[in-house]
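User: Structure please.
Assistant: Input sequence and predicted structure:
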Amino acid sequence: MALTVLGIVAPVFLLGTAGFAWSRAGYDYPTDFVTRMAMTLAVPCLIFTALMGAEIEAAALTALSLAALVAYVAVIAASWALVALTGLERRAHVAPLAFGNTGNIGLPLALFAYGETGLGLAVVVFAVMALLTFTVGLWLVAGAAQPARVLREPMLWATLLGGLFLSQGWHTPDWLTRALALAGQMAIPLMLITLGVAIARLTPGRLGRAAWLSAAKLALGLAVGVAAGRAFGLEPVAFGVLVLQMATPVAVTSYLLAERYDADAEAVAGLVMVSTLMSVAAMPITLSFLL
């Protein structure tokens, strides 16, 4: 079991470490360009091909989508309550505690742990979180949601189209499927390396506070993920994917939003760094119980 878990988590953290080392060595890395290419091209292709090729029953897909939505609503409410009770700044802390790194870390972990079926299920949770990030998350940080921005996100249309093709049993022509799959294969390596680069460039602050908040986020995500998975009667693979996604550390996106809207980005950077380091130990333990 230990070797199995190590084989799952090692590629994720090795690629992240490669990005970290690349940045620390002083080599140029155009983060804005790579991120835009990944989120506009590679990730949508990955989502679409993963859903189109997945062998998931419609009922299971619906159950996971509803479970993920309920889980995130519960986490947002609990994070809001925790921030209010501790007197922390809402704009800087609620969104990072609620939304995890389901893309950079969650997708590859689901792929390596559960194969292509796990990846197809993981992109559903990722899509739910992405939609909430650009609506509720933006409202929490900036004071105003941007639903129009959601409609411009290629990930939304890739998810909808992928779900349609999955439900109808449709497939694109082989030549197009191969092209889309090649583009999608860039997504996971790019996201992991970019995560490492982003962490290397962060200037974290208030690490003591970040430590206990990161532990609280992990515990909350695990508890809500398990509760939602059981409440909706998810099958073992879908259950494991939901719990994994809910337990992911703070997303770099939270730092970027805090930086853009002047919401104590230094504190959020501390959360990103500490929670990611904490996940190095937490994810193998979580996987050992799920597998």
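The longest helix spans residues 102-142.
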